[in-house]
Write a structure and sequence with these properties.
The protein is built from four helices and six strands, in the order ββββαβαβαα. The protein is of the alpha/beta class. Strands 1, 2, 3, 4, 5 and 6 form a six-stranded mixed β-sheet that branches. A hairpin with a 2-residue loop joins strand 1 and strand 2. The chain is globular and about 40 Å long.
């Protein structure tokens, strides 16, 4: 199974692919570490963003997209553009998308722990939230 962890930040979707096979985790190479939506206020740009993710999922045979959910209210609330990007992915007909809030992610990681330190993954530092949400998805599924 291949999961794409996603952290939405501004007009960008920062991504990390994580594959689990026979209880072993792999970090497959990916042509992109982020996908940008030039202007989330334009329908054409949102459609292009959605099509780009659909093509990525098709090319890498991604089974599940997991978006790190953001708060809707309060000091750490997500911005409007991030919610537009989130919605564009959720309504894409060929994508299987789920949201994972911080409390669920924290509980999954606490119960199952990440077996490798992030610095050993060779991923870029800005991909850490995307990696964490992808691993937390697997931890919540207890699939190993």
């Amino acid at each position: 199974m291949i999961v794409c962890g996603i952290e939405l930040s501004g007009n960008d979707a920062i991504i990390c692919l994580l594959k689990q096979e026979d209880s072993i985790f792999y970090l497959p190479e990916c042509r992109s570490t982020r996908i940008q939506c030039a202007n989330p206020d334009r329908a054409e740009d949102l459609q292009y963003f959605q099509k780009t993710f659909t093509k990525l999922a098709e090319d890498y045979k991604i089974d599940q997209l997991v978006i790190r959910a953001r708060q809707k209210k309060g000091k750490f609330a997500g911005g409007a553009n991030g919610f537009k990007l989130e919605a564009a992915l959720q309504v894409a007909p060929s994508l299987k998308v789920s949201l994972m809030d911080a409390s669920e992610q924290k509980a999954n990681l606490k119960n199952y722990g990440v077996p490798i330190s992030f610095s050993d993954t060779k991923l870029k530092k800005f991909q850490e939230p995307a990696f964490s949400v992808a691993f937390a998805y697997f931890a919540g599924k207890h699939e190993w």
